[in-house]
Amino acid sequence: MRTLSKKTISIMIILLFLLILVSFVSVINSPLKGNEDVVVRVEEGDNFYSIINRLEEDKKLKGVPIIKLYVKFSGKSIDIKPGEYLLSKDSSVTDIIDSLNTESSLNKVKFTIPEGYTIDDIANKLEEEGICSKDDFILGIKEYPLPSYVKSNEEKRYNLEGYLFPDTYIIEIGETPKTIIDKMIKRFEEVLDEATKSTNVTVKNEDIETVVTIASMIEKEARLDNERPTIASVIINRLNIDMKLQIDATVIYALGEHVNTVTYDHLEVDSPYNTYKNYGLPVGPISNPGVESIKATLKPDSTDYLFYVLMNDNSHYFTNDDKDFLRKQEELGY
């Protein structure tokens, strides 16, 4: 009888190891069976191991020994509270642990605000997703007590425009508009604090509105993250020489409706937001900016640029010469 060579045995061991590794990674990344989300009910006295054993018995979980081994050696802290939890079908073991470590997730929904959304956009999305009515949210915005850094002004469409931070929120069904607004403003304050620390820039309370107003215009104008500080420099350079900002996004906000192309007639709209007619900043923010636009405002590029033109690849052409600016516009067909 022929014996296996050492080389063959080594290859077999390596292949076996790779097979075990692949199985291990597969279970850790995708332990739930089937194509549906799983509801887990945690009773008083349950722990993580009793829950995964029960899921295995219900044929909803695979690789329980691997999961137990992973938890043991990862040192993850698991503190499960009674309640009902919704586990996404795509959850990893870590996702499941994180879900069970939080409060019950049923009767809660995820709500995402894209960067650059206005309050009206947010209100419409809340209504579309069945969280609350647009009218109730707008009323909540108007009645909300303003933070100390927000200046009340009757000329603003909404005093809170700019301060509802674009992010993903967990909202409980039936939450009041005020509670939803609380979360968004709290998140704004957290992000502003993070942005000031990362840029090493101190912002006084009375200057926050200026920062957010500039950031809100950058959010609407920029297409590429790396250009945000350059666009910030153009805005600041124009402000420094008392030159009208002439930003189309402020005109669109002033109109109160989206238009694909800003016409000469649009530029004549009589509004404190219209930076074609008025010098300086608009009366308030025109969108709710993301963190990159806030950082760009706090730490703009140092340039002498006064103009920029959007090019076909979504980048901008920057210049400090008005003739060069007009030439580029003509070249691009504006």
TrEMBL record:
Its BP terms in the Gene Ontology are: cell wall organization; peptidoglycan biosynthetic process
EC numbers listed for it are 4.2.2.29
Q: Which GO terms describe its molecular function?
A: lytic endotransglycosylase activity
Fetch the Pfam families from UniProt.
YceG (PF02618)
Q: Where do transmembrane segments lie in this chain?
A: none
Its EC top class is: lyase
Site positions per UniProt: Important for catalytic activity = 221
Chemical reaction(s) catalysed:
a peptidoglycan chain = a peptidoglycan chain with N-acetyl-1,6-anhydromuramyl-[peptide] at the reducing end + a peptidoglycan chain with N-acetylglucosamine at the non-reducing end
List GO terms (cellular component aspect).
plasma membrane
Q: List the keywords (alphabetical).
A: Cell membrane, Cell wall biogenesis/degradation, Lyase, Membrane, Transmembrane, Transmembrane helix
Q: Which domain of life is it from?
A: Bacteria
Q: HAMAP family of this UniProt entry?
A: MltG (MF_02065)
Role description: Functions as a peptidoglycan terminase that cleaves nascent peptidoglycan strands endolytically to terminate their elongation.
What protein family is recorded?
Belongs to the transglycosylase MltG family.
Family matches, as NCBIfam families: endolytic transglycosylase MltG
Q: What is this protein called?
A: Endolytic murein transglycosylase
Q: What is the lineage of its organism?
A: Bacteria, Bacillati, Bacillota, Clostridia, Eubacteriales
